[in-house]
UniProtKB/TrEMBL annotation:
The lineage of its organism: Bacteria, Pseudomonadati, Bacteroidota, Flavobacteriia, Flavobacteriales. One of its GO terms (cellular component) is membrane. Keywords: Hydrolase. PANTHER family: HYDROLASE, PUTATIVE (AFU_ORTHOLOGUE AFUA_2G14860)-RELATED, MONOACYLGLYCEROL LIPASE. InterPro entries: AB_hydrolase_1, AB_hydrolase_fold, AB_hydrolase_sf. Pfam families: Abhydrolase_6. This is Alpha/beta hydrolase. Residues 19-232 form the AB hydrolase-1 domain.
Length: 246
């Protein structure tokens, strides 16, 4: 049985609303750095960050995982929230985590009060595959050993599970287009203009297919806006939380 490692901190002003952080495809709790704590102090909400099965300190086997792994992750999150008796969440997902956040909101609409995504994917774009092939080349040249600091387990398994899934020809047909039509909660969609893994087409699909209020923030940066444009992104997120929930 998988053991999911997580960090859960109660808020002060809004302890019953939990801001849940969902890491990217090569990430873990550690890749968020102190960002969850920054937003907890600014918003007064409770926060939760966790390592998905097979990542960071969580147990789990990523070898031969199914191609619909992103769609299966919502159930893991639901079970974790049930364990802590959390029934109202705002989801903050980066990259793979953004896709999972969207899928969760479609499957559990009464729990998801709002969504914040950065560099989320809802379809597989050619630019994504080009970016992953470049990452594979860097990995083969031993240039990605920095990933080791994010994971207790062997980072090579995590990298190969991520790259082989996305580069599998059958994965080209994966999408969240049907799920988007089921989402009704407020959303803040963040996408860097220089992102090597996705374009503004992802943003347009989310905005056009979902219902409810959608705010967009399109900074001139790459794949990780919360790291590359920390002050501006933090300000946008806090303003969104204030306008939407708090």
């Amino acid at each position: 049985m998988e053991n999911i490692y997580y960090q859960y901190h109660k808020g002060t002003a809004h302890p019953n609303i939990c801001l849940v952080f969902l890491h990217e495809g090569l990430g873990s709790i550690k890749t968020w750095r102190n960002y969850p704590e920054t937003l907890r102090k600014a918003s007064g909400m409770s926060t939760m960050a966790y390592d998905r099965p097979g990542y960071g300190k969580s147990t789990g086997n990523l070898l031969n995982r199914p191609l619909n792994y992103l769609n299966l992750a919502a159930a893991d999150l639901f079970n974790l929230l049930q364990k802590e008796k959390i029934d109202q969440v705002i989801l903050y997902g980066h990259s793979d985590g953004g896709s999972i956040a969207l899928d969760f909101a479609a499957k559990y609409p009464t729990m998801a009060l709002a969504l914040i995504t950065e560099a989320a994917h809802v379809i597989v774009e050619d630019i994504t595959l080009v970016g992953i092939r470049k990452a594979v080349k860097a990995y083969e040249e031993n240039k990605l050993k920095g990933l080791q600091k994010w994971h207790e387990s062997d980072y090579t398994v995590i990298f190969e599970a991520w790259s082989k899934t996305w580069l599998n020809p059958a994965f080209k047909e994966w999408s969240l287009l049907k799920e988007l039509t089921l989402i009704k909660c407020p959303k803040l969609i963040i996408q860097g203009t220089e992102d090597q893994y996705g374009t503004l087409k992802q943003v347009q699909l989310i905005e056009n297919l979902t219902k409810g209020k959608t705010d967009l923030y399109i900074p001139k940066c790459g794949h990780t806006p919360f790291k590359e444009e920390t002050t501006a992104v933090t300000d946008k997120v806090i303003a969104f939380l204030n306008d939407t929930i708090l």
